[in-house]
# Entry
Amino acid sequence: MATSYDYAPLFRSSVGFDRVFNLLENAQRARSVSDWPPYDIVKAGDDNYRISIAVAGFGQDELDITFQSNLLTVTGKKQETSADGYLHRGIASRPFEHRFELADHVRVNGADLHNGLLSIDLVREIPEALKPRKIAIQSAPALTSAAPAQIEAQKAA
# Structure
């Protein structure tokens, strides 16, 4: 049983959260995307992440990684090979595409293909302007109790 949520009340009382609402709505939609090949997402540190995808049988030239506007796309497409000589073909070689929505300020640091695992390293780099900063508190000088200033005005005739 699928449950759908209406985010309209949140849209009326919040500003600048459009991307979050879009992510929630996209996650609710029934997607026909398979989870093949299997993958892991690991938090490797406070600001470091790693996505590992099991791509056994795929070569480096058969894989493509694209990062654009907070969307990381990993695609794989095997070269066509003839089925001659196979008695059983159990190693999957079908094309695939995985999409990962990345948070703001997360960028791809590198990728490595080793022993059939494609590892993509991600790092979150928050700009200096957005990092918390300490604000100095200054004390105001004591007010002197002088006579209030008089405003001179012309007398009405």
